[in-house]
Each structure stands twice: as C-alpha cells, then as structure tokens.
Amino acid sequence: MTGKCVRLARLFRADKHSVLVALDHAQFHGALPGLESMPSIIENVVAGGADGIILNPGAASACASVYAGQCALVVRVTGASTDRNPSFDYHRSVCSIERAVVLGADAVIAMGFIGGKGEAASLALLTEIAEACSRFGMPLIAEMLPVDPERFQDADWIGLAARVGHELGADIIKAYTTGTDADEKVIHGCGAPFLAAGGPKSADPTELAAHAIGHGAAGIAFGRNVFGADDPRQTVKELVQVVHGVGRKGGTAR
Asked: Residues 80-96: pLDDT tens digits?
C-alpha cells in the first residue's frame, strides 16, 4: 500500500535501520526525570539525529513545531492506565487512527500483552487497530510484552509475544532482548522488522544497541536510556552511530 510505503520510508533509512526514541512514558509514570519539559527533550533528541520519536497524542500536538520536518513521528494509540493501577495489562484505545493521521503520524504504536488476565482483550484490540491501520495506510508497531516481569528476559516468552504481534497484523515489532545469542532466534522468528526496546536504564546503552543490531534487529526504540541520560543529545548521536554506522549505505549520521 502506497501510504505505508511512504511512511515507512520516513521511519527507516536506506539501510533499513532506525533509531527511535520513546518519549511516551509520562502517560504511565508522570513527569519522570528528563521528561519535565517535553519541548526540551524533543529538541535534544532531534538534534542528536534520531530517526523518529514516540509520543502520546497530547505531546505530539503540543510539540509539533519542535520536531516537524526533523524526524518521523510515532503516535502511541493505547494506554489509559498508570503505574498506580495494579492491573499492568489494562490498556485501552487512547487515540484513533484517524486522529493519528491528523497529527501527521508516520506510524502508530500499540501494546500487546501475553500471559495475564488482560491478554485476550489486549490482543483483540491490537487486531482492531491493525485493521484500522490497513484502511489508512498507517504502519503499526506492536510493543509486545509478557505481563510477568520475571519473563521480560525470557527468550521463549519474548519470541512468542513478538510472533503473535506480527501474526495479528503488526508491521513492526518492539520488544525486549535477552542480551544472549537466543535473541537471534527471537528476532528472525518474529517475521517482521524488530526494534529492540531499551528497558531499565543501562550503564551503556550503546552495548544494548550493538547487541541487538548484531543479532538481526532492524533498530532500537530506547526511552529511559536516552531521556534519563546526563546528555541525551550525545547519547542519541552515539546510538545512531552504532545502529547506522559510518560507511553503511544510507547510514551516514545526520
């Protein structure tokens, strides 16, 4: 579909790799350190050369002048739950695909949970969103996650979640990696371009990125490892270098 092709070309460079920065955490956790000023963090991330940013609808609307024409926009379309809610997988639609189109989105991102009481509703919603994305030519990123935190680094669970997301219609999968060679099977088995999630803040996010790319990932989608860094702009520059690399076709850093 033409719309998806056009939007995906803005999300991924010619080398088929992408560096996304997730700045959508405040919907769940409030003003975390680094997210107190959305215009400021977005400006730094854009200046660092990120290929795209993930924003909630409100921030996408309020900060459009900061990122417009500078990087791709990914709008989060599920949420409606905070970290005060004991049901981690209680997510609902918070933005229609029509609204995402109006906001200028190049893709949307939706959660998909497995292994909890909310699994069926979560995956059914993901399917509905995929159908709407197909109608509007909008790429869908499925952020697939086991509900049990103890399974976050379990290759079998990650692999299942990732493949389910693709089977239900997602164009791209965002999920955790394990930091082991098992990631190669997970990434290649999911059936769609795989973006490695950053997870908790790491001492060296470039190592996480290098591991993911080395095991077949199409890119990364890091949040806390960027906005929680001492110098987010420099951190993004370093991640771009790792993911795209100098000399790789279409991969010269901006």
From this structure: 888 887 777 778 999 99
**3 state DSSP class of 14:** coil
- Per-residue pLDDT tens digits for 215-243: 999 999 999 999 999 999 999 999 999 99
Residue 178 CA neighbour count, 13 Å, CB half: 17
**What residue type is 232 in one-letter code?**
P
Contact status, residue 88 vs residue 55, Cβ threshold 8 Å: no
Q: Which residues are within 8 A (CB) of 57 and not within 5 positions of it... i.e. 6 or more apart?
A: 75, 76, 77, 94, 95, 99, 100, 103
Mean pLDDT of 60-70: 97
Q: Could you tell me which residues come within 8 angstroms of residue 249 by beta carbon, excluding any fewer than 6 positions away?
A: 14, 15
Threshold 0.90, pTM exceeds = yes
**Residue 211 CB contacts under 8 Å (≥ 6 apart), including other chains:** 177, 179, 183
CA gap 234, 52 in Å, rounded? 16
172: left (phi over 0), alpha (psi -120 to 50) or beta: beta
Q: What phi, psi does 16 have (nearest 5°)?
A: 70, 25
Instruction: Return the pLDDT at 250.
Output: 44
Alpha helix (H) ranges present in 193-249?
A: 205-214, 224-227, 232-244
Higher pLDDT: 143 or 86? It is 143
Please answer whether residues 219 and 20 qualify as being in contact, where contact means their C-beta atoms are separated by less than 8 angstroms.
Answer: yes
- Averaged pLDDT, 168-175: 98
Q: What span, in angstroms and rounded, lies between the C-alpha atoms of 43 and 118?
A: 36
CATH ID of 2-244, from 3.20.20.70, 3.40.605.10, 1.20.1640.10, 3.40.50.880: 3.20.20.70
